[in-house]
Design a protein that fits this description.
heterodimer; A: alpha+beta; 3-stranded mixed sheet; 3-stranded antiparallel sheet; elongated; B: alpha/beta; 7-stranded parallel sheet; 9 helices
Chain lengths: 114, 224
């Protein structure tokens, strides 16, 4: 259910944007989604399809999700590595002193309006 | 043929909510109202912990409670017996509260004379972590039967919390719950998190928790 709540949140935001820009409708929404954000793309797409039909502004609007890979930085050795494959522990020096460089993003990149 | 335009947005999905949350926090600071956002999974003992907390602090502060649930007023009825001012919020199927809903709840509660408001968020370890409610501090409860590996499974929740209450420690002998591992996993996600083992049923550890909260509320009010 999380994804559906997020869809409502995005639509509420974009309704304001559309109004400010005097748009009649939205035909496409492009999101950037980090690999380790807590949102699952397929659920998001399903929620989008369901909700878009119920709001005139979004009727028929396509949702495009661009994935951003997750990268972790290691304080111990200064190297970066793919987060999903290795998790919290650095594969080079086994240090747990690591933090996420990118991959938890969830951004609205751009929208196509008419 | 209608003209199609591309509008660049380039902002986080949560940016709008984050802004509203910051405004609400600033407003609460001006008014000297401390808002605690209490989160956990369903059944971890939020309401029982809350009842004990009110009991411990009711002589120090005027306390208000906002119960957020998808449906029912079971929790609000329970808490109304404690002497605190209570309001029930229904999220209408939503799995979390956002800053706007919190603001509306505070208006409904009428916080004029209230020092401390506890928001009992929807039982869920995922969504409430992503939506800043505008709270002064975030607290979460992890109960022993849930297991010590939860910080690994729900990293965001543990990374945004100022304090983690490990509840139901009276049943530790019956579960394979490793307190040292639990502390290690929480601090891996959030080195600043304060961890307080408690048992809301027996009252164990509740004094330390009440002291922490009392101190935080006083600091908040002194800086308003």
């Amino acid at each position: 259910m999380h994804e559906l709540g997020v869809v409502f949140h995005i639509m509420d935001n974009l309704e304001k944007v559309a109004k400010e820009n005097k748009a009649e409708g939205i035909s496409k929404v492009v999101l950037e989604l980090g690999e380790v954000s807590t949102v699952i793309e397929s659920y998001l797409q399903n929620g989008w399809k369901w909700a878009a039909k119920k709001r005139e502004l979004f009727d028929g609007a396509e949702l495009v999700v661009e994935k951003l890979p997750a990268v972790t930085y290691c304080e111990g050795c200064g190297q970066t590595y793919p987060t999903v494959e290795h998790g919290k522990i650095c594969p080079y020096c086994q240090s747990p002193e690591t933090w996420l460089l990118q991959g938890n993003e969830f951004n609205i990149k751009e929208i196509e309006v008419f | 043929m209608k003209e199609v335009r591309i509008l660049e947005i380039k902002q986080s999905v949560f940016a709008d909510n984050d802004r509203q949350a910051d405004l609400l926090r600033a407003d609460l600071r001006r008014k000297g109202v401390f808002l605690l956002n209490l989160m956990s999974s369903p059944g971890s003992g939020k309401t029982t912990t809350l009842m004990r907390t009110i009991e411990a602090l009711k002589d120090d502060f005027k306390i208000g409670v906002m119960e957020a649930d998808i449906d029912s007023d079971v929790d609000a009825r329970t808490v109304s017996g404690s002497g605190a001012k209570v309001i029930q919020l229904h999220t209408g199927g939503m799995c979390h509260l956002d800053a706007e809903m919190t603001k509306q709840g505070l208006e409904g509660l009428e916080t004029g004379d209230v020092d401390l408001v506890v928001l009992e968020n929807v039982g869920n370890l995922v969504c409430p972590a992503e939506f800043d409610t505008g709270a002064s501090k975030n607290a979460m409860i992890l109960s022993v039967p849930e297991g010590h590996d939860k910080p690994l499974k729900y990293p965001l929740m543990f990374s945004i919390c100022d304090v983690v209450l490990v509840n139901k420690i009276d049943v530790l002998p019956y579960f394979d719950f490793d307190m040292d591992k639990c502390r290690e996993y929480i601090h891996m996600r959030n080195p600043r998190a304060k961890i307080i083992p408690i048992c809301a049923r027996t009252g164990e550890g509740m004094e330390e928790w009440a002291d922490w909260l009392r101190e935080e509320v006083k600091n908040w009010k002194n800086n308003c």
